[in-house]
Amino acid sequence: MHSQRRGSLDRTEQGYIETHQSFGMALLFLLFTLLQVFSQSQFTVAHSLVKFLPGFEGTLPFELETGYVGVGESEAVQLFYYFIQSERNPEEDPLLLWLTGGPGCSSFSALFYEIGPLNFKVDVEYNGSLPTVLLNPYSWTKTSSIIFVDSPVGTGFSYARNNLAKQTGDFKQVHQLHQFLRKWLMDHPNFLSSPVYIGGDSYSGLILPILVQEISYGNEEGIKPLIDLQGFILGNPMTVISLEANLQIPYVHGMALISDELYESLKRNCEGEYHNIDPSNEECQKDLQYYDKCVSRLQIGQILEHRCAEASPTPQEMLARRRYLDEHHQEFLDPFPPPTVGCRTYSYLLSDYWVNDDDVQKALHIRKGNIGEWQRCSYSIPYTKEIQSSFQYHVSLSARAYRCLVYSGDHDMIVPFLATQAWIRALNYPIVDDWRPWMVQGQVAGYTRTYSNRMTFATIKGGGHTAEYTPKECFAMYKRWINGEPL
User: Fold this and answer.
1) Are residues 299 and 422 in the same domain?
2) What is the pLDDT of residue 44?
3) From what superkingdom does this record's organism come (predicted)?
4) pTM for this one?
């Protein structure tokens, strides 16, 4: 049943996942640099407690801390973070470092929309006053302490002290996050003995396994403080870019969003390759244009939801609008509706009003003058995308048997669950608990299976690209897994 070599691919997947031997050399270089930095650095960390937030009634019912950690050469990069102690038992509960995707999206997204303890009141139109802040009953901080870090530099409130330090990329982000965590732990000795997990979603799937491996190497090299690294968590993670692109079309067909005829024509004319398309293949290009017409009005993060404009249109959306204007069908001439009550992006709009308020930034102890207007997601940071596949790091980490939870919202079109299942299958570890439904309050919340490398895969029924689409189910899943219980 498992005759395939571990970490190898079957014929269908062979062309999708590439090994990058240079990654190993890059990691060794980063580790050497890290040793130098830790031997010379003064470990500058600044933090403050936050007891009240504008827009929230009363004292916060949990302990919130914000601060900056200096990393990189001369600590020219200042990474901002929000830290919330576990609401259950911070002395014994795990410590989770959470990375937000993008790259360029602030950890505020996770804090307010995904797994953190706060939300905005979104059922009334914005009237110019400060948005109202509410509690999220499904916060993962009910079972874990969580550090939400604005990374890479240029994201959220993180900033650089000079132009050279603004330049960043995948490997540099990994290196700086590693420094961040060890420095943060030195400044918070009460958490030195805490079991540590690294979590993230979306684009973080490319860098997170490398960060976990670098932390593991750092422990082996004796870098202090030692980190009690127990495992990692990935939500709808980008892992193999070509694989995710190529399996998006089978996913869309399976969800009845394109016809059988178009699907067969795409397979025939494009030969299953939709990522790197030969521009001279006119038949494939023609099929893909028709495919775009079928799906381009969808909310690809959760295909059942309404598609509304972003609070600030992204470059991708502006490009899409120009493409629609070339169409001859009236339904494609209309722009996406603006974010209003009932649209998910309306809540994103509220974050612009709230976070850019002077009183809010004062309450969060933000250093003034280091960034311009705060943006939830900034896609203009000088960032180099160096990683096309993190699969080989999963091969390495599987051999080290860290605990791992990988979950997929099954209505996410950005990173379809078919692709995540494919690279997990390619690791070729035996199944120890086969496919079965997992339940929340007597209802099927998704499906799960576990493998002998201590990896658990779970789908979230009706879920989207991040945990914000199904908070109750995602919290139940996380709570069971982090407590060592079966889903």
Assistant:
1) no
2) 77
3) Eukaryota
4) 0.89
